[in-house]
Amino acid sequence: MKRKNSLKMGTAGVAAASLFALSACGGGSGDGAEAWILTGGGWPAIQEDFDRWNEEHEDQQISVEAIENDAYKQQIRTSVGSGDAPTMIMSWTGGALLEYVQEERVVPLDDHVVDLEQRVHDAVWQNGLVDGSVYAVPLNDVQPVVLYYNQAVLDEHGLELPETWSDVEEIIDALDDVDDVAAFSLAGGSVWPAYMWLAYLTDRHGGEGAFQAVVEGEEGAWDNESILFALETMQELGENGFIDTYNSVTADQNEDAQLLADGRAAFLLQGSWVYATINQDFPEFAESGDFGFTSFPVLEDGAGDPSNIVGNPANFWSVSADASEEEQEVAFSYISDHLYNDETVDEMLNNGSLPPLNDIEDRFAGTEAEDFLTFANDLVANANHFQLSWDQAISPAEEQSFGDSLAQILSGEITPEEFVDRMNNA
Fold it and tell me: How much is the CA Rg of the chain, to the nearest whole Å?
């Protein structure tokens, strides 16, 4: 079933007082179009794509800056709010895109993406719509969150892949007394990887409706038994399940992936982009035959559909309303004429990244990542529901409180009930 996720203007939860209260001072650098991307994962392929564009278009140059994930979110909102955003604004859609549109910081793209729309999966394309108009288009791969594992660790301790949550609990118990090996790696120092656990546990317990009520701004929506269950379970994992040093592990430097590759954790719940990271940064592990991937376990008594997945349908490009007309024209040309060109698609596939394009399965054959691409494509194609990452789906006004409170849940500083009270008041 395809997920319709067209953003609606006026959706509850959009910040009343935001960074966009800053006065505009005019966008663009005056030296050509500009784009900001992220570091790590599959982003080197996007950098190389821009390099090819610049080689082929001497009069339409696009300068590119790569920024770490955690720093990017604050930096892009500040720059957009001040009217000094890059020409091409990358987002995960959700609450941020809605706010950009509401504050007239991005421009409609409908006239420039007619052909592109026909190539992209509808379930992904819908994330860039606001009131039926296109304000953002996907730029890279479909990014479901999956469970990676180290088969050597499982074999050494006589463990099997978990199909149910009871299996997970057995694995945690089996590794409880093992020195230097934990059940799960977690980049708790970055906080956002923990959102994936909260999303999956909530969905497996109560289905997609539990969080949809939050997105739609229903009063008291956070006070849901499935969210409380997920928070309680995460506190238990913080005490026994996650690696002891999780609070000092960060994702920007791929430390959580390294713990898996080094055999210090049996599993890692992370986005599909980590497949490329492990192949690039830890090739010995990737080529050993011990690197594997599977879906999130089933909660035996849960009401959620086991086919449901969470993650990012893709990252998206929007075009800044504060950029000059010349800069906007460069961005329009890149989006309409160059995005998802054959060379870049082939490179993405070889890196294990899955472009959100129709009828692409025949191009998996022969790629180094054929098994992973087939797995990820089946996961997305068979999903009853694809939940956008929670920190992107909620309004920017709630995000800071959300992240801070979840970090305190993991550390045991607050109770699940206190978390719920904070979020209901955010």
Answer: 21
